[in-house]
UniProtKB/TrEMBL annotation, chains A, B:
Keywords associated with the record: DNA-binding, Transcription, Transcription regulation
Amino-acid biosynthesis in keyword set: no
PROSITE patterns the record matches: HTH_TETR_2
DNA-binding feature ranges: 31-50
Identification of the protein by name: TetR/AcrR family transcriptional regulator
Domain of life from the UniProt record: Bacteria
Species whose genome carries this gene: Chromohalobacter sarecensis
Residue span(s) of domain HTH tetR-type: 8-68
Native organism taxonomy: Bacteria, Pseudomonadati, Pseudomonadota, Gammaproteobacteria, Oceanospirillales
Length: 196, 196
DNA sequence: CTGGATGTATACCGGTCTGTCTACTTTGGT
DNA sequence: ACCAAAGTAGACAGACCGGTATACATCCAG
């Protein structure tokens, strides 16, 4: 057993526990005491690793950003490049919504949209961090859109983002896990109109 | 001066004040004391009209549901029926995002999406109330979609809802008020493919 | 003209919030 | 073997939470 890392893992333990609680119950609704109890860690330890709750929130957003983009990138790479890759996004969403992919379970909406809902001011630190995440995901789609239609890649990827966000909201708010399939159908027709 | 209604208006005053605060800062972030201070009302008065904060939240959601649907309905009715009405939705969104319509200012995202983000469990009372609102808005679109393509009205309205939700999220999270125009462009092409 | 509904102001209750502090233990690299 | 880093448990501070209680004022309908 790696005792050495056991110590250093406390930080990650706190982050992943905080993420699970924030994601499920919302950030304001979860107190620091809940986090440390669930993580099985002393309060002092939390404040050893993080200056404040704000810092923990920032770390949680960074953690999820990494996890989510790594997951989506992997799902896309398994598909054929170009159109296949872009449609694979919606298959990935489908598995996410239906909690069929362990790597990204469970589903309680988009953590970043949810966080922006709690910090509605676009100038807010956390809101900005969510924007940065969405920008990176958008750029990911853009790279693949480039394979489909280089001249209109910006347009195409932007429109696909709309379908993606719409699907996530619909799946969460309406508890409609089939939303990804509707969005995929729309995406297919969109791709046809962009085919070169 | 109508002193009689002055009394009865306190309830509405509380609701509209609570809405403004909840909408801007999130529900969990706003305390009951903030609400009564902003409304200029005694705490006893709040608890005379509402059993609890939960009850105030419910009333706030009902108030916004009414306000929003009345506003959107009016905006749609001003446009020619059928396609015009459906496209008018996106013009309305455009004015909302850009805070050009006093009747619906300001813009901090969709109150119902935001509330679902704070109460992620679809079984939660408030989450369900948000679903009900979205269902009513969806039915509103459905009625107009029926004028465009009676056989495929369900499909069409559902797809327009995706564009609408996508636009709202994009406008809020990315602070991109032009999102409504992108969505309108997509909607136009969608309507072409549904034209009878 | 009186009584009940609605309002005011303010103190209070028990609990929880973030964050600090004390005092002690475990661990691992040098 | 030793010391700094990282950990533990838990009390504490001061603010704020939702909600109740007390005591009194205003208003209007029967």
């Amino acid at each position: 057993m790696s005792q050495a890392s056991n110590r250093l893992e406390k930080r990650d333990q706190l982050i992943s526990t905080a993420f699970s609680l924030f994601y499920r119950y919302g950030i304001h609704a979860v107190g620091i005491n809940q986090v440390i109890d669930a993580a099985g860690v002393a309060k002092r330890t939390l404040y050893h690793h993080f200056e404040s709750k704000e810092a923990l929130i920032a770390a949680t957003l960074a953690y999820r950003d990494q996890q989510f983009r790594t997951w989506l990138e992997a799902r896309i790479e398994q598909a054929p490049p170009g159109e296949g890759a872009l449609l694979a996004v919606f298959d990935a969403l489908n598995d996410w919504f239906n909690e069929r992919d362990e790597a990204i379970m469970p589903f309680h909406g988009c953590f970043f949209i949810n966080t922006c809902a709690e910090y509605t001011d676009p100038q807010n630190v956390h809101h900005k961090q969510c924007q940065a995440h969405k920008r990176l995901v958008g750029e990911m789609l853009l790279r693949h859109a480039y394979q489909v239609n280089a001249e209109r890649a910006d347009e195409l990827s932007q429109e696909l983002v709309f379908l993606k966000e719409g699907a996530i909201v619909q799946a969460h708010v309406m508890a409609a896990p089939q939303a990804a399939l509707v969005a995929k159908g729309m995406a297919k027709r969109l791709l046809q109109s962009y085919a070169t």
